[in-house]
């Protein structure tokens, strides 16, 4: 989907007063394979609904949470995740995404209230990771200093879709034979692949790869419900290679995964797409 089409859809999903502001976004030109997205020039965006999917950003009090909320609004990450979820998933009841102050860096599926919560503190941390603490990385993603780059935007979209994955697994009573965290990653990959925003997978891989450099292997990390960060990076690289995206050659991925696995990545990517489409994918118009 083109940048302009995405910006127009974001605009149309809000009330009329917001449409001029949203369509006035500055479009960021991306040179590293990310989807082009709007770099908001407005301070706030309205809550909204699209089909079964709704989203809202709650007020924030602490300085860190206020910063994270401002970033989420500026990036439109929650809204983009809502649009992707609407287009990718077969939904039969409401799915709610909430931006909120949590007191800690996190994003999670809130079972008790049947909603996905994206914590402002996590958004602030992701923004700091790419902008403040690593200016070189910021320039790499956007080509400009001081620019709200696409990498954090799409990293937050991936994180949000991952948590939506947990909700879909539970609400559809999907039986898993492996780790649910790995399945949630696959669901996020599936959604971005189905909607042709594969650059979101690239952003998530880049973010996780940066974090993996400082990961300490310990009983806590080995026993965690999540795979090691390096394993998650390898999985995403394998899917990107399997999707045959431009630039994702043998040489590009061999730093992440052994050659013996590379040979099977096309089958892995095909299996992921096929299986999740059967389980949760939106049927094409006119299909049975």
Helix content: 40-55%
Poorly predicted parts: 1-45, 137-149
Mean pLDDT: 77
Structural class: alpha/beta
Radius of gyration: 18 Å
Q: How much strand content do the residues show? A: 5-15%
For the sheet with most strands, the description reads: 5 strands, mixed
Provide key terms for this protein.
14 helices, globular, two-stranded antiparallel sheet, about 290 residues, single chain, alpha/beta, disordered N terminus, five-stranded mixed beta sheet
Question: What would you note in describing this structure?
Answer:
It is a single chain. With 288 residues, the protein is of the alpha/beta class. Helix content is 55%, strand content 9%. It contains 14 helices and 7 strands. It has helices at residues 3-12, 16-23, 63-75, 77-88, 120-132, 135-142, 150-171, 180-194, 199-212, 219-222, 229-242, 250-253, 259-262, 265-280, and strands at 26-27, 38-39, 48-50, 53-57, 95-100, 107-110, 115-119. The strands form 2 sheets. It has a 5-stranded mixed beta sheet with strand order 3-4-5-7-6. Strand 3 and strand 4 form a beta hairpin. Helix 7 (150-171) crosses helix 8 (180-194). Residues 1-45 and 137-149 have low confidence and may be disordered.
């Amino acid at each position: 989907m083109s940048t302009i089409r995405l910006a127009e859809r974001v605009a149309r999903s809000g009330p009329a007063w917001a449409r001029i502001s949203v369509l006035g976004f500055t479009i960021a030109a991306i040179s590293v394979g990310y989807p082009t997205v709007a770099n908001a020039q407005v301070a706030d965006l309205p809550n909204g609904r699209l089909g079964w999917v709704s989203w809202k950003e709650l007020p924030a009090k602490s300085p860190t949470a206020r910063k994270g909320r401002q970033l989420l609004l500026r990036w439109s990450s929650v809204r983009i995740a809502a649009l992707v979820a609407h287009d990718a998933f077969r939904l039969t009841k409401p799915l709610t995404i909430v931006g909120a102050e949590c007191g800690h860096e996190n994003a999670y599926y809130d079972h008790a209230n049947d909603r996905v919560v994206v914590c402002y503190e996590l958004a602030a941390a992701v923004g700091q990771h790419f902008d403040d603490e690593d200016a070189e990385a910021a320039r790499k993603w956007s080509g400009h200093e001081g620019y709200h780059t696409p990498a954090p935007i799409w990293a937050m979209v991936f994180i949000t879709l991952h948590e939506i994955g947990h909700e879909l697994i539970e609400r559809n009573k999907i039986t898993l034979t492996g780790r649910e965290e790995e399945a949630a990653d696959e669901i996020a990959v599936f959604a971005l692949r189905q909607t042709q925003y594969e650059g979101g997978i690239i952003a998530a891989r880049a973010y996780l790869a940066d974090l993996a450099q400082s990961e300490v292997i310990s009983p806590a990390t080995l026993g965690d419900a999540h795979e090691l960060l390096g394993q998650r990076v390898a999985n995403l690289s394998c899917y990107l290679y399997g999707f045959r995206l431009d630039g994702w050659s043998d040489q590009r991925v061999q730093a992440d995964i052994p050659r013996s696995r590379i040979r099977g990545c096309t089958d892995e990517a095909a299996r992921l797409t096929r299986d999740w489409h059967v389980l949760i994918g939106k049927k094409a118009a006119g299909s049975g």
